[in-house]
Amino acid sequence: MPFYVSPEQQMKDKADYARKGIARGRSVVVLQYDDGILFVADNPSRALHKISEIYDRIAFAAVGKYNEFENLRLGGVRYADINGYQYDRRDVTARGLANVYAQSLGTIFTETNKPYEVEIVVAEVGDAAETDQIYRLTFDGSVADEHGYVAMGGQAESVAQSLKDGYREGSSLAAALRTAVRALEAQDSERRLEATSLEVAVLDRNREHRLFKRLTAARIGDLLSADEAAPGAGDAGGTGADADDDLLDLPDLPETPKSAESPKDAEGSAEGSKDAGEDEN
To answer: Which domains does the chain have, with CATH numbers?
Structure first.
């Protein structure tokens, strides 16, 4: 005789199962900066990407089981290509794609024994920061419209708290990248993420046609180094010569003492003064 399990208990068990699977993965951070949207993942693999392009202005980031979110990514690419071909490229939007993903994830969660252990972000960059769109979708098909930043996977709460403390609207790419790296490092105080351990991409509104671009490890290292040097210059406390003196921390040099006159020089000076007086007379 089969045991009866209430629908509420079934949904709770599925949700707990999916959350545990997602928490075992490494975190991904998505945040806005002055020229677009930045994606940063703790991912040393150069082949298995957590961040990918979907369409001209749309990108995708995910955490969880790779085979499951890769199926979702491929489905999103097919949806975007078909709609862009049949209608117009401008008809392909992050909101439409998020709705498709929400329906798929919701159906899988309710109608199958095993839910997808994934959490994804669909982002679209606009002509200005006010028109950027960032949608977060969870394993059960829930959709949230995010603004500014979002963290998912791993210890998402500690990452999100670090982002809340350090995020500033209108940050440069270097500053936003450093904020994201600090947030990822907040999960383990003893761990320091190198450029080779990061997967970084941007949706840059200043590019032509395809706005998605991956950053190489060398470029990531340059951005992190540039942003680390900036606070030192800002802490110099002044501009111009004052800032340079503070930055170099040079000690004050003592005044050079005047050399003492020898007795002969003194006598010569006195005789010279006397001769000059006689000539004047």
So the answer is: 7-234 (3.60.20.10)
What does the alpha-carbon distance between residue 5 and residue 17 come to, in Å, rounded to a whole number? 16
120-141 residue pLDDT tens: 999 999 999 999 999 999 999 9
Beta bridge partners of 4: none
Distance of CA 116 to the CA centre of its chain: 27
What is the number of residues in the chain?
A: 281
pTM of the model: 0.78
Distance CA 172, CA 229 (A): 14
| Cβ–Cβ < 8 Å for 202, 177 | no
Tokens encoding 37: 């949207």
